[in-house]
Amino acid sequence: MNKEDKLILGGREFSSRLFVGTGKFSSNDAMKLALDSCGASLATVALKRANLASEHDESANILDYLDSSKYLVVPNTSGAMNAEEAVRIARLGRAAGLGDFVKLEVHPDPNYLLPDPVETLKAAEILAKEGFKVMAYMNADPALSMRLQDAGVAAVMPLGAPIGTNRGIETRAQIEIIIEQAKVPVVVDAGIGMPSHAALAMEIGADAVLINTAIAIAKNPAEMANAFAKAVEAGRSAYLMGASCAVSFKASATSPLTGFLNG
């Protein structure tokens, strides 16, 4: 990876463009091994899974398995049904010492878990004013992305497909517009099910990707995490080298034979 190609998000530099979620793993040990093996630079955790009391039960508290010296641990507001709940969860995480970074999620629909754009924007405006470094999970809506950036978020996180579906980058056209207009990092989140999906997200110019389900449910999560890490690096390198080549509907010979045949 090009050492001069740096990712700065919320005033912090990240060594890897692979972010990993911590849900759905068969055990906390499996989750820790996957994170440690792939070199992820950021891990998100649902506050509802964290024991924020003074006592620690290592069999239950996921925070005991997350090494904050290796990656930034970012609480998310998963489970929030509206802006009020999301703000309350974020404030709880900050009060518990988890810092100012927060992944903002507001998805009241239990069937599709699609983010609520109105409540997400409302929460983002409040949290940004309170000094939170908001990473806003959102539908792949360019207009909403601009509104969130105007509100002061640190990153926008458009979905590739509904969360947990592993269907890939179904919203490519919208994400490309978001990337073109972005003033903050764009992190593609949700729907990425294969390393090739992650590579595509990076090839079109995303600054990072966040993966959870595809790694957590793999036969070997640590090896799958490594596969995603390699895909992210390859996709980013391709983007930097001009991967977006012009598409043609006609063939073009790579080695013209005219001169050879007439020689």
Automatic annotation (TrEMBL):
<comment type="function">
    <text>Catalyzes the rearrangement of 1-deoxy-D-xylulose 5-phosphate (DXP) to produce the thiazole phosphate moiety of thiamine. Sulfur is provided by the thiocarboxylate moiety of the carrier protein ThiS. In vitro, sulfur can be provided by H(2)S.</text>
</comment>
<feature type="active site" description="Schiff-base intermediate with DXP">
    <location>
        <position position="103"/>
    </location>
</feature>
<dbReference type="InterPro" id="IPR013785">
    <property type="entry name" value="Aldolase_TIM"/>
</dbReference>
<comment type="subunit">
    <text>Homotetramer. Forms heterodimers with either ThiH or ThiS.</text>
</comment>
<comment type="pathway">
    <text>Cofactor biosynthesis; thiamine diphosphate biosynthesis.</text>
</comment>
<dbReference type="InterPro" id="IPR008867">
    <property type="entry name" value="ThiG"/>
</dbReference>
<feature type="binding site">
    <location>
        <position position="164"/>
    </location>
    <ligand>
        <name>1-deoxy-D-xylulose 5-phosphate</name>
    </ligand>
</feature>
<keyword id="KW-0784">Thiamine biosynthesis</keyword>
<dbReference type="Pfam" id="PF05690">
    <property type="entry name" value="ThiG"/>
</dbReference>
<feature type="domain" description="Thiazole synthase ThiG">
    <location>
        <begin position="9"/>
        <end position="256"/>
    </location>
</feature>
<feature type="binding site">
    <location>
        <begin position="190"/>
        <end position="191"/>
    </location>
    <ligand>
        <name>1-deoxy-D-xylulose 5-phosphate</name>
    </ligand>
</feature>
<feature type="binding site">
    <location>
        <begin position="212"/>
        <end position="213"/>
    </location>
    <ligand>
        <name>1-deoxy-D-xylulose 5-phosphate</name>
    </ligand>
</feature>
<keyword id="KW-0808">Transferase</keyword>
<keyword id="KW-0963">Cytoplasm</keyword>
<comment type="similarity">
    <text>Belongs to the ThiG family.</text>
</comment>
<protein>
    <recommendedName>
        <fullName>Thiazole synthase</fullName>
        <ecNumber>2.8.1.10</ecNumber>
    </recommendedName>
</protein>
<keyword id="KW-0704">Schiff base</keyword>
<dbReference type="InterPro" id="IPR033983">
    <property type="entry name" value="Thiazole_synthase_ThiG"/>
</dbReference>
